[in-house]
Amino acid sequence: EQQVQRTPDAVALVFENEQLTYAQLNARANRLAHHLIALGVRPEDRVALCMERGIGMVAALLAILKAGGAYVPLDPAYPGERLSHILTDATPRLLLADATGRQALGDTGALTVLDPDASLDDALPQDNPQTTVAPHHLAYVIYTSGSTGKPKGVAIEHRTLAASTFARHQFYECAPNERFLLLSSLAFDSSVAGLFGTLTNGGSLALVDIDTARDPNAIIKLMRNRDITRVLCVPSLGQAILDSMSSSGEHKLREIIVAGEACPPNLARQSSALPRPVSLYNEYGPTEATVWATAYRCLPEETNLVPIGRPIANTRVYLLDAQHQLVPVGAVGELYIGGAGVARGYLNRADLTAERFLDDPFVQGARMYRTGDLARYRADGNLEFLGRNDHQVKIRGFRIELGEIEAQIASHPAVREAVVIARARHDDTQDQQLVAYVTGTAEINASALREHLASRLPDYMVPSAFVTLDTLPLTPNGKLDRRALPDPQWQSLDTYVAPRSSLEHTLAQCFASVLGLERVSVFDNFFALGGHSL
Question: Between 394 and 351, whose confidence is greater?
Answer without folding.
Answer: 351
